[in-house]
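Journal club side-thread
Mid-discussion, someone asked how the predicted structure for our own chain would compare to the paper's figures. Pasting it here so we can look after the session.
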Amino acid sequence: MVRLSREVNRRVGRVMHEYAMLADGDRVLVAVSGGIDSLVLAWLLVEWRKKAPVNYALEAVHVDMEAGENGPGAAAIQVGRMIEALNLPLRILPALWRPDPHTVLPGAASHDFCFQCARSRRTQLFAHARECGCKTIAFGHHRDDIIETFLLNLTCAGNISTMVPRQDLFSGRLALIRPLAYLDKVEIEAIGRELGLTPVRSSCPLREKTRRRDIHQVAEQIYQQIPGAKEHIFAALGNVRQDYLLRQTGGRRP
């Protein structure tokens, strides 16, 4: 039986508590892409329910980017087998939008395809949550994702922002939660290996050629050259000093 280490268990419990992620009676959709992060998240929420002071319902959902006339694609079938082993119900949604691999080329234009694809999948998840009466969607994003989103927005979008452990949308009618937000990718991969989970390879034609991949490599270089940089960057995202950011005053003294 796989158990979380005391430190990992502490951090998961801490982020759950600090961001009030789960409440009694919640119906939670677990977004499972097939990557190791989302697979570990699905397992974690199943196990957490056994000891949590609240009771919540769980359903996994996978947006199938390879669905055909004969049914789910190969990746969706693999995801289904692993989720079935967790005794977790899974809903497979055929993707409403898919990029044409013949028109997707690496480079600046790839950002538009990534944005459109992500937005379409997110919209589909939101619609499914509304239809099935789920007010919470859980994503497998971790600390590295949060930092790299910050760096991506900083360098490519010209704003200071990132994904957050809990985000309430539509006047509180839907909450996005990220229970792995205080864990690193390497920790999640280690848990996945213990569980014997095999990540499903993405069919995206740009999976290794995105701007996010470039940012990941930059972040790794920073961590190697500056000890403690990852911890300090993550801490900084919750320690914003508004008075020391640029503010336009219209040429007048404040």
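Post-session note: The two ends are 62 Å apart (CA to CA).
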